[in-house]
Amino acid sequence: MLRDAWLVAGKDLRIEARSRVALWQVVPFALLALVLFAFALGPDRTSLGKAAPGLFWLAVLFSSVLTVQRSYAIEAGEGTRDGLRLSGLDPAGVFLGKAAAVALELAVLEVLLWGGMRLMFGVTIRAPWLALGAAALATIGLAAAGVVYGALSAGLRVRETLLPLLVLPIVAPVLLSASRAWTAAASGAVGPGLSWLRILGPFAVVYVVVGVALYGPLLEAG
């Protein structure tokens, strides 16, 4: 399973490295979203600083939908998914590989967005380990949930519009918890921040387990 996950993740990442879709589309979209949020809130640095964690994770959330859509778009060619089914790869390994590739792309995006947020909003994180822990759990949860629902909608003609409708309500706890955890990390309030990690952790674990268990049937149904 882990060998197959490594193969699938490597395949997806090599395709993205060659096409550079994430670099030229997803990253500018996320940065533009931050700029528009800043314009909407006005020039008050205090208001921007308070809203920055929520705006950051909102941009990541929208970008995760685009990243998952791209992950399945590269397999939308005629017979590509049939070839994946007949390849003999472990479905659980395929899920883990695709989720790992999406998570890595999101992690790179978050680093770039953090630089943009520091530049525009002037936010300082007083508890970096709390912010990193929340980011890791939120990224895993977003990637796992996105890949699960991406597989559910992949075989449908309306997958581009259906995927956001499926994913966005489900990952609302990630948006809320990651935003609150980062707000706590920015203020140095470790105790309240840890309580939000207790939501992010189970969410990530549940969707990883669900993906490992159900990706095979979802792949066959697609």
Gross morphology is: globular
Low-confidence stretches: none
User: What is the gyration radius calculated from CA atoms?
Assistant: 18 Å
Order of helices and strands: HHHHHHHHH
Q: What portion of residues belong to β-strands? A: under 5%
What composes the largest sheet? none
Structural class: mainly alpha
Put simply, the count of helices is: 9
Distance linking N and C termini: 21 Å
| Tally of structural domains | 1
Give the integer mean of the pLDDT values. Answer: 85
Number of strands: 0
**Helicity, as a percent range:** over 70%
Description:
There is one protein chain. It is built from nine helices and no strands. Helices cover 86% and strands 0% of the residues. The protein has helices spanning 2-19, 21-41, 45-73, 80-85, 91-121, 128-153, 159-170, 172-187, 190-221. Helix 3 packs antiparallel against helix 8 (172-187). It is mainly alpha-helical and 222 residues long. The radius of gyration is 18 Å and the shape is globular. The two termini are 21 Å apart. The mean pLDDT is 85. The protein has one domain (2-221).
Task: Outline the fold blueprint.
Elements lengths: L1 H18 L1 H21 L3 H29 L6 H6 L5 H31 L6 H26 L5 H12 L1 H16 L2 H32 L1
Helix pairs in contact: 1-5, 2-3, 2-5, 3-5, 3-6, 3-7, 3-8, 5-6, 5-9, 6-7, 6-8, 6-9, 8-9
